[in-house]
Amino acid sequence: MVKGYLAFVLHLHLPFVRHPEHERFLEEDWLFEAISETYLPLLEVFERLEREKVGFRLTLSISPTLAEMLRDELLQDRYMRHLERLIELAEREVARTRRDAALGPLAGMYLERFRGCLESFNGKYGRNLLGALAGLQKRGLLELITSGASHAFLPAIAAVPETVQAQVGVAVRSHIRNFGDYPKGFWLPECGYYPGVEAFLKEHDLRYTFLEAHGILYADRPPRYGVYAPLACPNHVSAFGRDPASARAVWSSEEGYPGDPVYREFYRDIGFELPLDCLRSFLPDDGLRVNTGIKYYAITCPGADKKPYNRKAALRKAEEHAEHFAHARLHQAEQLRPHMDRPPLLVCPFDAELFGHWWFEGPEWVEALLRRLARGAEKLRMVTPSEYLEHHPEQQEAQPCFSSWGNKGYAEVWLESSNDWVYRHLHKLSERMLELVRRFPGEKGIRRRALNQAFRELLLSQSSDWAFIMKTGTTVPYAMRRTKEHISNFNRIYSGVMENDIQQEWLLKLEAKNNLFPEIDYRKFGRARP
Amino acid sequence: MTRERLQSIPLEELTAMALSAGLETVDSADRAELIESLLESYEELRQEREEGNSPSVRVGEKKYEVAADEELEAPGEDPFPLPVRYNETKVVLMIRDPHWAFAYWDIEAQKAQRVRKDANFEQLVLRVHDCEPSSSFDIPIQWEDSSWYIYLPNADCEYGLDLGYLAAGRFKLLARSNTIRTPRETIVDAGGGDEQARALFLGVQPEALTGVSRPMSSEAIPQRILSSLRE
């Protein structure tokens, strides 16, 4: 007898960062680190489970900006170069630590990992990670869904509804091109929900989305089953609520798994610790210290000197934590089941980059969890939201509440003194885009290209990442620059089109640089369906 | 900020940095000591900043971390200067949470000039309309202001904003904002039913709301409310 369902959801996202105008660009490392530490390890996990016939069902949301970067040849080439530099560095580390019984084997582990990344990225996958994901979807293991085209925090741009509509429409078209199939669901960036946003999901037959728990709990009617069954919005798009207990098991600063002392310490990177001479071959030309991903120490109990990382002990712990998580979820389902007319659903959404990048053992935890859940599937069954909706087509109707999964649960992370200045411009750009479409409904040639590029710049300026970075304080100058750059690019095109004075050479360069969404069509801005 | 970076900075500048970081030992410290104290204080700042964020925000942040010198804005001209304003008369209201909204506005130069010349002009104000029950209050603003955080007494309530000014005791409208509905901050609970089930389903604490205190009473909010200037 099935006691409950578990929907495990991973959201993969990075903002569009691509700088062909520079030989090497630091922020492109965000993507490279995520590929090495998160995307490739997770793909390996999925494929290993598939080979061993371990059944699993997972929902993956892949943001359009990330998908566009993963298919970009320049970034693929640069990732290869990044790996080559890392391999060279790891080889030097193996030599440097060869007499060190503790660090030597760890250096060897990193060397092997980087070589493995190179081999699977370039060899096995032929640089085509999107194809690998699409294959897993075809074979019924993953359900791939989309998110905002440039990952805008939708409540903050809702002042011009057409721009929210564009975030959804462009995303769906990009998803179809990248994965060869319609997405069935939509990840609201940062779980940023406001009443009514579901109208734009409905336009594209997106059947469901995810909300932070209070988005469901504070609906206009009390949700009969809390977050353990989805709500149907008035237009019948389904809203799934995040299970707080699952979230806390991973996130809590006290008892959350990733803080365990045996796990690898994120902050002790050799890029910041070794003399510059040991790092020369890897660091950018100006000798700026950067993360390398080579980290030799375990988190260790507070107060004590950091101990060298013990891989075996860490993997054992990941298994224990997976066992604990699965056990706790089953217990939860058993508690809930007698009070419901159907098995409860536990929705566990996570940022994918948590696994591997921040929590080094995260992919192994996911693997152990999926194996454990497969063994206990008769009691707790993994489902995707669309499977759940097929089994249980009737949902309670209610209007969910404005919410997000950011600090304090509403819009504060993206709307505070560090970043509130952007919205005056973002809203203005959207109004100008509408004006452009109305005045120039059928342009051709260079004018059409200019208007299409304006649409891209508009979307790029809206990424939630820029506001997030301004708030949290890492790489603020870059986030400021990117925001201003896209706003100013848009405004330059706007004046160019209005005054019939398009700077062609500049425009072509811009097109080649911010080259995402090749199928974009400015005439669709402000229109419901294509 | 890395040690090497600090080592490359002249003593004079280091001293200034130490002063602005609030370090006390500045006078007696030698260069090496100064650098160590600065490094320590930057690390403390980083930790402080992290503690203010929820665990998920803290981890999310790690996606964007590559180097350690990035907090420093490269000197030089801003390559992408933005217009300060778009010379239009409008006001926009945005939801931040159940009790706070953000408003930004602009007044066309010509219109602003006309208002300033109005002999009866007393004060620029934002008039906040609370729709249920219908009531309003004014927030005086200055010509140089262009945005403001506004405390809204009621969650789950519609609000709108009028940008205008008081002249001879009367309110003159310049622009009207969009209306917003503040989010709920509690469950709409009709009560009744099985106590245990209610606790199971409705008693859970959302992760994002961890550590969020109950909203303050409106009296505690420093907002310049000019009820005396009401029409």
3D architecture notes:
The complex is a heterodimer of chains A (530) and B (231). Chain A is built from 20 helices and ten strands. In chain A, strands 1, 2, 3, 4, 5, 6, 7, 8, 9 and 10 form a ten-stranded mixed β-sheet that branches. The longest helix of chain A has 26 residues. The two termini of chain A are 45 Å apart. Chain B is of the alpha+beta class and 231 residues long. In chain B, the strands form two sheets. In chain B, strands 3, 4, 6, 7 and 8 form a five-stranded antiparallel β-sheet that branches. Chain B has a three-stranded antiparallel β-sheet with strand order 1-2-5, with no helix packed on it. Chain B starts with a helix and ends in a 29-residue tail after the last helix. The interface between A and B is large, with 92 and 67 residues.
Which regions of chain A have little confidence, pLDDT < 50, spanning 5+ residues? Answer: none
Low-confidence stretches of chain B: 214-231
Q: In whole angstroms, how far apart are the ends of chain A? A: 45 Å
Q: Helicity level of chain B, as a percent range?
A: 25-40%
Q: Count of DSSP helices of chain A?
A: 20
Determine the strand fraction of chain B and express it as a percent band.
Answer: 25-35%
Secondary-structure element pattern of chain B, one letter each? HHHHEEHEEEEEEH
- Average predicted confidence as pLDDT of chain A: 96
Radius of gyration of chain B: 25 Å
The biggest sheet of chain A, with number of strands, parallel, antiparallel or mixed sense and barrel status, is: 10 strands, mixed
